[in-house]
Amino acid sequence: MSDGRPPLELYGRSGSTGLALRRGTVPGRIERVDVLDGSAVVSTTTFTPPVDGAAADADLALTPWRRRPAAPTVVVHYRRHQPESRVPAPSARGSFRLDPDQIGDRPMTQATPDGVPTQTQGPDLIGAFFDFGTSRAVCGVFDRRRVRGSDAALPAAGVERARRLLPVQLFATDDSPDPAQEIEDRTIGIPRVRGEAWREIFACAPLDVHHVSHTEPRTSDLVVTGDSVDFAMDATGERVRGAKRHLADLDAEVPGTGLSGRELFRGVYARFAELVAAELNLPRAIGTLSVTFPTKLPPDKRDDLLEVLRTLGGKVEMNIDEAVAAAGFAMMKRLGSDFLLGVEAFKLNARCPEGGRAWEMPDAWAKARAWHENLLVLDVGGGTSDSALIKVAIVDATPAAAGDSPGRFYKLQPQVLASGGRLNLGGDRLTAQLFKLLRGKLGFRPGDTRFRGVEQAASRKALFQALWETAEAVKQQGLGTENPAAVRVRAVAPGGAVPESGVVPFVWPVSPDGAEPAGPSATEVIVTADELAEQLRELVAEITWLAGGIARGGIAVSGGGHESVDRVLFSGGSMHSAALRRGIEDELRRRFESDQLAPTFEVEFDAEFAKTGTAVGGVYLDAVADLSPDADDPEVIPELRGGISYLDVDASRLYVNLAADFHLLKGSQETYDEPVFSRGQRLELEPGGRAYAEGRSTYPLRAVLAVHRYDVSKDDCVRDTDSLWATHTMLLKEADALAAAGVNVRFEIDQEEHITLLLCKGTPGWQLEGPAVDTTDVPHGLVAPPEREGAPATLRYSLYQEVYQVGVGLREREPLAFAGDPVPPGGLLLHVAARRITLYWGLPGAGVAGAASRAADTGADRGPEAPMGAGTERDAGPDPAHREFGTLTDVPEGYVWVSLDATGALRCHQRRPRRRTVAEPLDLIDAAPGQVYEEVMRSGLSYDENKDPFSGIL
Q1: How many CB atoms neighbour CB 265 within 10 A?
Q2: In 3-state terms, what secondary structure has residue 137?
Q3: Neighbour tally for 818: CB within 10 Å
Q4: How many angstroms from the chain centroid is the CA of residue 497?
Q5: Which helix (H) or strand (E) holds 552?
Q6: Where is pLDDT greater, at 922 or 950?
Q7: pLDDT (tens digit, 9 = 90+) per residue, 13-61?
Q8: pLDDT averaged over the chain?
Q9: Tell me, what's the pLDDT at 826?
Q10: Could you tell me the CA-to-CA distances from 190 to 169, 183, 187, 371, 394 in Å, in that order?
Q11: How far is CA 585 from CA 419, 532, 588, 883, in A?
């Protein structure tokens, strides 16, 4: 049709079914419509009087079907127009075969008094994803009002690019116009070419297919007037710059606003919601609001912001950080408009669980039910740099009950292997360096642009603003190409002539208070290519230093072996600089070679979506997860058997990770080889948003304890005062006395990288309070007594938090604790994420301890969840089909800890129990085993105003 709409659209949702026919699709009066599933009729509707389908579009309400058709055919019975005949035209029939994916949900409309359809206004139909950056703000929107079926056509431009990659046809075919079949036929035995062809097809962003849109980026500079907060491009007044950095403390007053961070950001997001609604013509009430966050923002700070935003929508969430959202956009493009074809294309380039690809480990790859790629995301914005190594996995999670069905249930499972970020490391850092360079070239003194603490500082602030904008323009022009280029800058008086093209103007400002700003001593200067390259060099080195360390730490977490970084994704507004991208790419390849990682990664950058891609990717992940059914839904099984496939998003693996290695000083110039805490190490979340990780080793006590922090391996940098992170000192004689009493050293770290020192008498013990769970049904009890004097008690059985049926056998996740694990005198503490804890034991005579030990040996997490019924049962001793699991207890809602003491008493806790502590370190000399002295070490973590370009002291 001329408007590009399909001639026929079939809709179905709970309680209703509909058919839309474009004018002329059926050349007559429609009397009946049948909907068939194969040969079976699932819906029949008769129309009296008949509906004229030749003269106008027909929107027909059909009898709801008895089951959703897996092989749909629409049969329309009609009579042609015969105005000159005395006899009615014979009945005719039009038959339309459909793909199951072409059955869409009816657009949610309602009639107005004049009969014109309009979109339903409702808060539950719009999902928005806000990305408020340091320099730009953008919003992605999922509009469920527009959900409908599509023809799943492959993008024409992508098909043409893909065909140019295909080899010459060497075998006979029927020259089918089907591009999918053409690619498969012409790439038999050459999966690399096939994968490249599919990548070309899905290179564009299928926003319309997924009903996703986004706003144009707007500046994050704010204008505050009293209690009113607005964006600088929508209001006039004094700008507040770099407000995002104040997310770290919402109770502190934001300079220049008179508002606390809590008040400011409530106004920011409320105003943002209004602007988004106006720009995208949305209802004012946004039902689901998701907010992205910097990787570096701690969980408790995220909870503070969520509390501020609760009033802005029916459901407000903060589950996805900026790096993962950028990866979501990349996956949306990879999977394209037809996710089933997209999954097949992804698999051709992806790794099997063992780490190999189709051409490296063909047998293992062919048997796999999960495939993944390692994606390094580098999100460089104006004020921050975030980096994350993400294991992007697609799992065939089709339920065993569906058998080898033509329809598949796939899960997209992004897993953060390592992540980290830096404040004051982004485009603004480079702009600040160019600002200082220009200030000197134009003859300004440093004091001319410093306004903090200066009376009548308006003229200085105006000069700062003008010079900053000039530095931004120099950066964009001089570093926009792959190699830096010289830039001419000319000073222009207010109202003066605009310089010719290619010359950056510096407009001497007019102060709002009438005072004259300082004037330049030079009217024209040149920033050379060498000067720009020199200014860029340090930024490239720091970003590469950060990203390279995260990449190597993440690969180590994943088990190494065949693994490496497969793709590097550049996102963020600062990545528009081609010179920055090229510099980072070159440095990363050199870094990977020295780290013994393959430097053969692919680079992905989308200039159109460099900033907006984060918002679009976040809302895409939310939308897919929101619309997908549960794989265990009974209605899903027959649909899978009928050929309908599903895609779901599992965001449960987006853990908070440490971004650096921490090493304890061993001597005056040496640190221990094994880190106290490692890059990629997962932080455990507690209620209230606090997260922490315990050190992996115990150390001997010294009078001076110093922990050094390394964004990269300590072997890659020289230890100096900059790496010193936290210290604790005591008198030498006290340290010797404690060491003689058997006191050792442990450490704990929180989400803000504050380190707590733990001086321990043996293994730390807990204050285990509250009623114990009844475990009398457990054979022989949970805890086995010590095998010899002085040895600890041990767990008799492995403890699981989830066990479920798979075919004729049972499948369990990795145990919370393994049989044979010691239960120290102070008790064993387990963090639980599910509502149920189950107990597993072997059959009598099967060797309980041995069976459990074998389960422990084979029960390690191998990455994405293995598919059920795929031959992935683990040998846990007894025949898997006859293992026994006993339900131990249901954990009450809100309780996330389970403890077990040496007597076998099991308790549930809402918060992590307190340790058994002493008041002073020397109290440990006479203390019982399990006693601990705790103290937060002195840390170098602090705000440095010298690194804040908007602090007024630049």
Answers
A1: 25
A2: strand
A3: 18
A4: 48
A5: helix 529-558
A6: 922
A7: 656 788 888 888 888 889 889 888 776 677 888 888 888 888 888 888 8
A8: 80
A9: 83
A10: 13, 11, 5, 18, 22
A11: 19, 18, 5, 52
If residue 219 lies in a helix (H) or strand (E), which one and from where to where? strand 218-219
* pTM check: above 0.90: no
Return the closest-CA partner of residue 730 out of 858, 922, 559, 596.
922
Rounded to whole angstroms, how far apart are CA atoms 189 and 604?
26
What pLDDT is attached to residue 107? Answer: 42
Q: Which structure tokens are listed for 265?
A: 């950001």
Question: How far is the C-alpha of 481 from the C-alpha of 580, rounded, in Å?
Answer: 9
Helix (H, G, I), strand (E, B) or coil at 809: strand
Compute CA 605 distance to the chain's CA centroid, rounded to the nearest angstrom: 17
Helix segments in 353-457, DSSP class H: 362-367, 427-441
Which residues, 6+ apart, have CB-to-CB distance to 295 below 8 Å?
A: 321, 322, 323, 386, 387, 388, 419, 420, 421, 659
Task: With beta carbons less than 8 A apart as the criterion, state whether 615 and 130 touch.
Answer: yes
Q: Is 523 left (phi over 0), alpha (psi -120 to 50) or beta?
A: alpha
Closest CA to 575 of 328, 380, 444: 380
Report whether 489 contacts 527 (CB < 8 A).
yes
Contact 523, 491 (CB under 8 A): yes
Give the whole-angstrom CA distance, residue 290 versus residue 411.
21
State the residue for tokens 């995260």.
Answer: 550
The amino acid occupying position 235 is A
Asked whether 810 and 883 are in contact (CB, 8 A), the reply is yes
- Alpha carbon of residue 529 to chain centroid: 37
Contact predicate 292/328, CB 8 Å: no
Burial class from Cβ neighbours inside 10 Å (0-12, 13-18, 19+) for residue 562 reads middle
Cβ contacts of 698 within 8 Å, gap of 6 or more: 744, 745, 746, 760
Please check the confidence at residue 878 and state whether its pLDDT lies above 60. Answer: no
pLDDT digits (tens, 9 = 90+) for 728-754: 999 999 999 999 999 999 999 987 788
Instruction: Report the length, in residues, of the chain.
Output: 954
Convert the pLDDT of each residue in 104-116 to its tens digit: 754 433 222 333 3
Lateral strand order in the sheet of 222-225? 228-231, 222-225, 239-240
> Is the pLDDT confidence value at 851 over 60?
no
CA distance 648 to 627: 8
Residue 622 pLDDT level (bands cut at 50, 70, 90)? confident
Q: Residue 864: pLDDT above 50?
A: no
Q: Are 251 and 262 in contact (CB under 8 A)?
A: yes
SS3 sequence of 479-497: CCCCCCCCEEEEEECCCCC
- Identify residue 125 by its one-letter amino acid code: L
